[in-house]
Amino acid sequence: MKRFDSTVTELQPVASDYFRITFQWPVTLPLPQPGCFLTVSAGSGFDPALRRPFAFSDVDPARGTAAFIFQRRGRGTAWLAERRPGDSLDVLGPLGAGFRAPPSGARPVLVAGGIGLGPMLFLARQLHQTAAAGRNEVPILVLGYRSASQAPSVDLPPGSVICTDDGMRGFHGSAVAYLDQLADALPPYYYACGPVAMMAAIDRLAAARAGQADWQAATEQWMACGVGACQGCVIPFKDGGFKRCCADGPVFNGRMVDWVGLQE
Amino acid sequence: MDLRVNIGGLTLANPVGVASGTFGYGDEYAGLFDIDRLGALYTKAVTPEARAGNRTPRLADTPAGMLNSIGLANPGLDSFITDKLPALRQRRCAVIVNVAGTCPEEYQAVVERLETVEGLAGYEINISCPNVKAGGLALGTDLKLVESLTRRLRDCRQRPERPLIVKLSPNVTDIAEIARAAEAGGADAVSCINTLVGMVIDVQKQRPVLAMGTGGLSGPAIRPVGVACVYKVSRAVGIPIIGLGGIGCLDDALQYFLAGASAIQIGTALFRRPECALEILDGLAPWLEANHLSSVTEIKRLLKV
User: Fold this and answer.
1) What are the extents of the domains in chain A?
2) Which of B34, B210, B272 best probes binding to A when mutated, by most A CB atoms within 10 angstroms?
3) Distance from C-alpha of A158 to C-alpha of A161, rounded to nearest angstrom
4) Can you give the pLDDT at residue B129?
5) Is domain A2-95 classified as CATH 3.40.50.2300?
6) pLDDT for A147-171, tens place per residue?
7) Which of A19, A123, B54, B229 has the lowest CB atom count within 10 Å?
8) Nearest to A78 by CA among A36, A112, A44
9) 0.90 cut: is pTM over it?
10) Minimal CA–CA distance to B59: which of A218, A70, A48?
11) How many C-beta neighbours within 10 Å does residue A174 have?
12) How many Cβ atoms sit within 10 Å of the Cβ of residue B305?
């Protein structure tokens, strides 16, 4: 990990209030892996005082760039949405441990809700590549949105499924409802990133299915240091303990996370 | 330029330290800047038993600052000695352990045990944590308790070369009185200030953002409070003062030195820009030279009031 001043190369709207920001990634740094994150200083003064964490959505070693997708919802992300190519961006990363490979013989089923799109898109592309090399089964990417207008305009990998609560596009119902009725010859192996309610529902689904002792959840939490020092970003676990989202995660076995505690 | 400072018999290579709670046990920032150049590293609090810490959310953003409610999460004394101390011992900077507990006996248990291990430079006694139900702030706001706790720890200390630094809370009517009580109890130095109690309410949900309701406010927002506290304390006690609260650049540090601090700690600013601690250190010698001073402790003489 390193803190450095990068340069924005592109800011692209991908849905209403959702943007993808692309910036230079030095060749001297490790290539970010799906599930890993970075923090940026989102503002020029002291307000906001804390850096903002975002999961990587893309990395392009040939161009020397990386990217993340963010939603404009507060002061920091409003500032980010105003960045333009050539602007400087204060980056700290890569941080955290990314996703692990799926078990052999299982179908990687990737579920993204809201801002979970970025890391899931990144993982889906990588798992398609490793599937082509015969290292895992071909993944399915499932995206859940309230309405068709919120669905992103990004290049989705083949076999992706969009679910909308209003049924105006794709599957009529939630992403979890889609998973529940999904018929596949292979047993599913879940990866997910999204709102806590969605994550809790996936956990219940995983628990209900025999043999699902493990699924991979990319978590998010308010962060201060991002490097494991301050204990601010912890995620509650079902055993009563906590783990640091930044340094122990942000990807955890979803069966271990106390989703009810996190939701409260 | 000689940047050394003396804190109750302990000589620090320079006056720039990193504040307890913001720096873990040192390893976490190792890849981001050269920790060995710091004058002192103040560890995350150590309590006799492991503490999981408070429910989440533990953090909230505030104008020019942040609230935290970590709740002294730490692996406990045994694990600190076994798992954290070996790496800390390798550091060239002074390692000062922040000591906490729920009652005087617990503070004593930590200090007594740490007296038996090598590689530590001193103790910062945390009587000012606002985020725990017992101990912490409850101890730090009572004059008699501050004096008796300090004396108790002073009496059980076998190694007088390790200063007892009492960390003061600004959440009191008169911080100078508390500093005098610590000095009367035998403290070698005081550090001030710990965080200020604060609350952020989510208007849409109509409840506090932090799971525990309140937390400790830190960052640039509290700097004027910290500077005023150091100024008041410097006029009340003769022991050295370590200043902290919202320091992020050389000018911020100089305000604390002018107010009467002998050393400083950087905390919340590390979250934004970890290397700012070394930037402050690198700016000190040129500033002293430009002002025809030969040591950091001479800075306070420049203050005109």
Assistant:
1) 2-95, 107-263
2) B272
3) 9
4) 74
5) no
6) 888 888 888 999 899 999 988 889 9
7) A19
8) A44
9) yes
10) A48
11) 21
12) 6
Fill in the amino acid letter for A113: G
**Who's near B103: CB < 8 A, 6+ residues apart?**
B134, B135
Spatial separation of the C-alpha atoms in residues B26 and A3, rounded to whole Å:
17
Q: Which fold has domain B5-55+69-197+217-302?
A: TIM Barrel (3.20.20)
pLDDT value at residue A111: 97
| Residue pLDDT, tens place only, A85-126 | 999 999 999 999 999 999 999 999 999 998 899 999 999 999
- Looking up tokens 């001030």 gives B192
- What residue has token string 């911020």? B252
- CA dist B246 and B242 (Å) reads 13
Contact A117, A175 (CB under 8 A): no
Query: Nearest C-alpha of chain B: how many angstroms from A77?
Result: 13
Q: Give A29→chain B minimum CA distance, Å.
A: 12
pLDDT for position A43: 87
ipTM of the complex as predicted? 0.93
Q: Distance between CA atoms of A255 and B198, rounded to whole angstroms?
A: 35
Residue type for B220, please? P
Fold of the domain built from segment(s) A107-263 = Rossmann fold (3.40.50)
Q: Which of A28, A38, A231, A263 to mutate to test the interface with B (most CBs of B within 10 A)?
A: A231
Amino acid at site B211:
A
Torsion of Cα atoms, B20 then B23 then B26 then B30, to 10°: -160
* Cβ–Cβ < 8 Å for A117, A152: yes
With an 8 Å Cβ cutoff, are A232 and B53 in contact? no
Among residues A237, A257, A224, which one has the least CA distance to residue A95? A224
Confidence of residue B135 (pLDDT cuts 50, 70, 90): low
